[in-house]
């Protein structure tokens, strides 16, 4: 995983907001996640990565932001189930777009959506986790990327 | 006699049932084409049996019961060719027959139906009659069945043609399967001929009946023997296929998997009932697109008899291949498979390819882990060599401060107070970049002080990345990606160094006198009182190092300096500051020996570090003096104006010391060229921030341009 | 029997020529790219060709096809450093008779050349 790979994820995210919310998201300064540093907001979606790459991509956002986004899309009733569903969809789209560029060796799983704070999410130990703040209309959400290349011949 | 004839007819039914059962077991009758082919013969045989039993006054109940089953089967089977419907066989198995959708297929399926319908009416009447059979009805039904028997077989062949893929698969099956099939058809024809022969003359010649019966018995015995042999052979091959620890299969030119394959194949591909599936479709699900295309081409080459097999086998693209299966519990399972291929050649044509597949995940994983750990070992050995010359305590200090600096980078980048206005945001990002630079610069300084060449180089490359960003007119969040990448690598390196250090520590504890190995050569003396401060030893090394690289000549004097006179939590800072001041002097202040003699100085420059107290505050500190050209005030002024720190008007007003203080401004540098030694324009600002802002200390500067430059550093007790 | 060596590296061309001497070819010629190889082939008409893949002016695989159009029974050994299995399969698919991975030794080259004539 190098800079261009991270950029693919980030581009996917900003595109997503640009299209769905018609207002591009801004990227904060990315940073490295420390072991004791749990970045978990109200709704989170984890997508497992396997194949030539291994790890997970994880999107977490505050309830307020998700509600706003949903309303932005024309839904009136942004209940919990819809919010959870939507976060999964965001993560799925981001990882799916990345798959297109990273190739068929990049396999993504169905997102696991976590509502509320599950305490912590386990990240693979052998690859660093990059935290990328995504700011939309003043709300801050995070994309966490922990993807290492599988050991190759 | 007649009873034995009935028995022999039954024997053939049972035989054909056994065979058919075998076929079903292998999914062989999937298409039903064979069933169609034999259906007419069944009707004739049933009707004939009933007639014979009737004439002999035998009960027909059992035969009628069996016939009923075949009537239902015929109905279902013929319908299934028109509309998709599961067909339940006599043995209770469900066949799934594809409805035919070609014009020819559809027309013959309809025709089959129209042949069957009148016969069904006749048979139903016979079934109704029970034990009171009407010979005329039987004769009429028989005559009808015989009349259409040839056409039914033709239709069966046409349907087989339509079901080509399945038939290919059947024919591609192992020889034993074909043998069973051939025997089966032989049985049917044996059955058919005597009955047709018999029915014409049944009333005329008992002798003919007897001859036919004898012939049937003979054939029957022979078939029973064949069946036994076939069953025996099949049982053996079944055992092999069930137990062999490798996926074994045969594919035909279209890629269709043959009827017999080993159980392991199902386990490897996590799929059941693979017979009839296209092997390429299975591979497509688990291979990358590129690998799939290559494999398809490769199989094409294997089936092309014109290509030399040996050459093709040599370029097997699937000898070790990664495959990914979706996991029902979410995610994917990655395995490594090894494939081997062999041609099956019949009459110069490659009819099938034999494939062996093994799950070699464990082997591949192990090999790769070994290779990785070897790579890691190599790097660790390099790092180890790099720290052997350094005091363990110093290595530990380096690791600790480096970790602290790396954490500071994270803290800075993570900061929540992200300016909302875009104008302010760029400033905010620039500030963050400056902090990151200072941290990296500090790591580099410490690394070069300890002569940790690897880290010095890594940090220098890191700095270059930061400098690229600093020169950009605008900044966004994702510009920092290269920074966190480099930070991640550096963090990894520091952690590895830490790992080695602690291993080395264990070695020392257990090693007794071996500690001498790691001591500095100038510490071999026994008197601890006279030993020079560790820090000064390091600085002296740094001076010598840089002097060599730059062609300068400098000596360091620090007789009374003792780092232990500072508070223990300030000591790392004192070290950082001294390293930075030394590097600055070496880069900016000292002249080349030739220049020095020209201006009347000794060719060798001198750095003097002297403990002292601050005159006003009484803070404990030291003076760092170099007798180089000092700070070039003119250059500082020029740079400050060009970097927009001050206006030309400000510059006119400011005193020399005020101008000198500008070197503490973040991002300021007067070096003309960026070198590893100095000139990144950072350093003095860290000193100011740490000494004054963080620790509440003091800094003094005194400059006599061209003669010397003295910094005073003071810290609270 | 004649041999045409196609490779853009002089060093490799010489190495192949040296190793192939064991085979006692009547004549050995060489070309440094696909375009020259095709030109040379037309006048030289060798029975055997060794072919590099990555070359300036017509890559090796295109050249294999062009040569086979000239003389379908020529034996072509593709020698390439492209370790990707797809390359090897592609080479055979385009009509090469064999594939040899660089770096090669005298032994592996000789074996590969011998195998070209095995039935």
Q: What's the arrangement of secondary structure elements?
A:
The complex is a heterotrimer of chains A (153), B (717) and C (119).
Chain A: H1 3-20, E1 26-27, E2 31-32, E3 43-51, E4 53-61, H2 63-72, H3 80-102, E5 106-108, E6 112-115, E7 130-136, E8 139-149
Antiparallel strand pairs in A: 1-7, 2-7, 3-4, 3-5, 3-6, 4-8, 7-8
Chain B: H1 2-25, H2 33-55, H3 61-80, E1 86-88, E2 94-96, H4 103-129, H5 135-162, H6 164-172, H7 175-201, H8 206-243, E3 247-252, H9 263-269, H10 279-286, H11 289-303, H12 309-314, E4 321-326, E5 332-346, E6 349-359, H13 361-387, H14 392-414, H15 422-449, H16 453-470, H17 481-511, H18 534-550, E7 554-557, H19 571-589, H20 593-598, E8 605-613, E9 620-626, H21 633-642, H22 648-653, H23 656-661, H24 684-694, E10 698-704, E11 708-715
Parallel strand pairs in B: 7-8
Antiparallel strand pairs in B: 1-2, 3-6, 4-5, 5-6, 8-9, 9-11, 10-11
Chain C: E1 2-6, H1 10-20, E2 27-31, H2 34-44, E3 48-51, H3 60-70, E4 75-80, H4 85-93, E5 98-101, H5 106-115
Parallel strand pairs in C: 1-2, 1-3, 3-4, 4-5
Task: Describe the 3D structure.
The complex is a heterotrimer of chains A (153), B (717) and C (119). Chain A is of the alpha+beta class and 153 residues long. Chain A is built from three helices and eight strands; from the N terminus they run αββββααββββ. Chain A is globular, with a radius of gyration of 15 Å. Helices cover 33% and strands 31% of the residues of chain A. Chain B has helices at residues 2-25, 33-55, 61-80, 103-129, 135-162, 164-172, 175-201, 206-243, 263-269, 279-286, 289-303, 309-314, 361-387, 392-414, 422-449, 453-470, 481-511, 534-550, 571-589, 593-598, 633-642, 648-653, 656-661, 684-694, and strands at residues 86-88, 94-96, 247-252, 321-326, 332-346, 349-359, 554-557, 605-613, 620-626, 698-704, 708-715. With 717 residues, chain B is of the alpha+beta class. A five-stranded mixed β-sheet of chain B has the order 7-8-9-11-10. By secondary structure, chain C is of the alpha/beta class. Chain C contains five helices and five strands, in the order βαβαβαβαβα. Chain C has helices spanning 10-20, 34-44, 60-70, 85-93, 106-115; strands at residues 2-6, 27-31, 48-51, 75-80, 98-101. In chain C, strands 2-1-3-4-5 form a five-stranded parallel β-sheet, sandwiched between helices. In chain C, strand 1, helix 1 (10-20) and strand 2 form a beta-alpha-beta unit. The model of chain C has no long low-confidence stretch (mean pLDDT 87). Chain A binds chain B through residues 2-3, 6-7, 10, 26-32, 34, 48, 50-52, 103-105, 107, 109-110, 112, 128, 130-133, 135, 138, 140, 150-153, and chain B through 288-290, 320, 322, 324, 326-327, 330-334, 368-369, 371-372, 407, 409-410, 413-416, 418, 420, 429, 432, 476-478, 480-482, 484-485, 487-488, 491-492.
